[in-house]
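quick one before i forget lol
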Amino acid sequence: MKRIVVLILTLLGYFSKVDAQDTFYTKGGKISFYSKSKVEDIEATNSGVTCVMDKKSGLIQFSVLMKGFEFEKALMQEHFNENYVESDKYPKSTFKGQVTNNSEINYSVDGSYPAKVKGSLFIHGETKEVETNGTIEIKNGKILVKAEFPVLLSDYKISIPSVVKENLSNSIRITVNCTLELLKS
């Protein structure tokens, strides 16, 4: 619980110059990834993603604990945490960015809007600039954020041992799906 409070305070510090009535939040967002290879497809989902967004400025930030990803097979989860992302050494990943076409989204009218997002993705001790297209859906006062984009493991210095090269692709598809509610002060 103490870690969650520290995480929320850190995320809110990123938004220190925004008005609370414009800030939306969740700690139950969902990020999943998918790897297709010749031998086996690998999927994992994390449903404990923290996300904060300021609808006025378009600033958005995600934070995910790496050990929160759940796999179909326990051995995959163990290898992911110990051998690939080294979760004890790099316990979380973050994205800090902005909806670059934020002025085109009408947050006061229910509907689905195309969104362009650009920012810094931090994984495994490495930070890279990423851009993607997604959607922002406004529904009953909530903001639904959805996006999908590829990530190369090699960009984040995540190495694949030669013995399992055929089992894991260097290219991973990441899917983001979060429902944000107004942050109550």
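fyi The two ends are 19 Å apart (CA to CA).
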